[in-house]
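User:
I study polymers; will you set down one protein's sequence and backbone structure tokens?

Assistant:
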Amino acid sequence: MRAPFTREAPDVRRQALVAAAEAVLAREGVAAASVRTICAEAGVSAGLLRHYFEGVDDLIAAAYEAVDQRIDAALEAAVASAANDPRARLSAYLAASFAPPVLDPNLLAAWIGFWGLVKTKPRIAAIHAQSYAAYRARLETLLADCGAKDRRLAAIALTAMVDGLWLELCLDPSTFAPAEAVRALETAAGAWLG
């Protein structure tokens, strides 16, 4: 059900547009992410989008950045809540991808939309590159704290495993349990740690 048009503070409207872009991408995919559809979802007039964004591509990029920030915050919160032991912090970082709010089929649907734009939209490609570089860098630091020798390659391999397991688990949760995904990652991380 679409939201009725309402008057809101500027920042609230901007955030509503970002959330609406994410919701439309998750529900209907990239092809449906039009100005009209997103604005209807946000409960604002179609002309208002241009007041806050250069266009729909700019809005989708802002939505990608917002999703990335939410995921990063969840991962960092997991690390912060872990024991001060380096191995526990690494485990918490890896396991956070398989717990809410990161393990979410709606997030997957939006993420697939963003991934689909990486090859055709330079700004999305730049956000993707920056986001994954930051994830791998954080993982490298956590691996270094645990004494891993080939941290760069370990971070690349573990990132690929997280993506693959996360994707499969969101697509078909009957394939394996989140705990099994974490166990597979722990086994792989253990091999890198020697």
